[in-house]
Amino acid sequence: MNDIPADPKAHLVQLAETISRDMDQLLADLKAPERLIAAMRHAVLAGGKRLRPVLVLEVAHLLTASTHARTQLPPGAPQVAMALECIHTYSLIHDDLPCMDDDDLRRGQPTVHKAFDEATAILAGDALQALAFELIATCGHPKTPMMMRDLARACGADGMVGGQMLDLAAEGRFGEATEIKDTFALAAMQAMKTGALIEVACTLGAHLALAPEAERQRVARFGQSLGLAFQISDDLLDVNATTDEAGKRTGKDENAGKTTWPGLMGVEGAQQTLDATLADAMATLEPYGDNSASLRYLAESLRHRTR
Known about the structure:
The protein is 67% helix and 1% strand. By secondary structure, the chain is mostly helical. A hairpin with a 2-residue loop joins strand 1 and strand 2 (109-110).
């Protein structure tokens, strides 16, 4: 049986710190223009909970054969986890640009285009995206082609990028706003923009563990629920938290005319939907019992986010 962390919170914090150290070393080893690397480091090493790479590793642990100890990762797992963090960070750099969400603050520090300039920010994001696929391509795992495919779909036109386009259209960026009138349309857009990378984190973990199709589908459903819960909690954070608490500008969604869960349902309704979504996520993990303690803690932490 997989060894179970006595303290899931401490385990996840330690795992996030290990990922951060690995990312630091990865960027230190790059041979590229100094300013470009500095901008990449500014974004990647700014902190954060490393939710997506942690999910990759925790799902891989959960689904790895019982003969393996928790400390023994499948081949290529650290590289795949870092690849997803590269994609996530590139998306944040580009989302913060003036032509997109126009944010000056991210994780409590100036966004990359503010700390450097817009051209450098764009190139830093581009470089991180390319680095992500290099990491997976060279990870040496037998499921490399499937992992490359799934990550490309999750961050491309049918996933994150397509979701961002729908979000901009809903703001009226390209003419008349494409109104999002109900929670079904909102969930569909956010499943692309935010949820796709969280779902693929679970799928990548299943590939790393060489899990059968039924297990991949189960953890993908967990990822879908977790992605929705993350976005609802993010919408609530924008309403309830201060800029200092969140580490980024809050209140911006209403000012930008974005459709959000609190906007459609009120704060109380959004919180109830968050609770129901987290219950769905927990139910998906029931077959794994205590072995899923870290994943259940991670999901539960979204209930009352402060950052």
